[in-house]
Design brief:
Layout: H1 2-30, E1 105-110, E2 117-120, E3 124-134, E4 140-149, E5 158-165, E6 171-175, E7 187-196, E8 201-210, E9 221-231, E10 234-236, E11 245-249
Parallel strand pairs: 1-10, 2-11
Antiparallel strand pairs: 1-3, 3-8, 4-7, 4-9, 5-6, 5-8, 9-11
Length: 250
Amino acid sequence: MITTLFSLASTTLHAIGAIFLVIFIPIISFFGYAQPTRIATSTPEVSVEIATSSPLAPVPALVSPPVHKKAVTVPIVVPKPVPRIIPPPPVEATTTLSTAVGTTTLAIASVPLLTGGTAHAGQSVPISYLQITNVGGEGALLKGFWVEQNGSSPTESVIGLSTVDDRGGSRSSAGGAEGSTPFQNGVALAPTDAYFAPGQMRLFTIKATITRVVDSYIGMQLVIDVTSIETAAAVQGQFPIRGTTWTIAQ
C-alpha cells in the first residue's frame, strides 16, 4: 500500500515537473536566460599509422682517381747586371759669358760722323767712330783697338785712351793721369771688353785725352788711326781706318 502511494506521488511529481519545464523554459528563453544545452558527443578515436621508411645510408662521395702530373722544370733566368752609368763630372766653367767665344768673324767699318776740330789742353776728344758686327754663328769677344798716331804731334801729347759703346754698357780706359804714356813705339791699345752674340752689332767711340801741358804742342795735329782690333775671331774690314784730325790748342 505504501509502495503504491509512493509510486503515485512520484508519478505526480514527474508530471508537475514536466509541466513546469514546458511552461517556464520558453519564458526564460525569451528573456535571454536560457542555458545552453549541452550535447554530449563522443569523438571517435582515429588511429593513423604513418609508414616511415628506414633511414637511407649515406651515399659515398665520388672521388676521382689521382692524376699524376708531369714535373715541369722551369729554367731560372739570372738577370744580367745592369751596367751602372756614371755621369761625367760637371765641367767647371772657366769663362764667363763675355769670354765664351768660338770661331766667328767680326766685321768692322768706320762711321763717318766725326768732323774733328780743336783739341784743348786736358780735353778728351773722339778720334774714331766704328761699327762692329758679329757676322758669324758663334759668340766673339773684342778686347780692344790697336791705334797709331800719324799726325804731326808727338805721342806724348796724349796721356790716355778710352772706349765706349753706343749703349754705354762697355767702358774701358788706359792711362788718363798726367804723365801717362799709353803709346809705345808709336802704337797703343784702346781697351774694351765687349761680347758680341751671333748677329749682334755695336757702335764704338774711341777717345784720346790731351795733356794739360800743351805749350810745346800748340798748333800741331793729332791724327790717330785704327790699325787692327784685338780679338780671337776672324776680322773683316779695311785697315788702317783713318782717324779724325784735331789741332791742339791751349
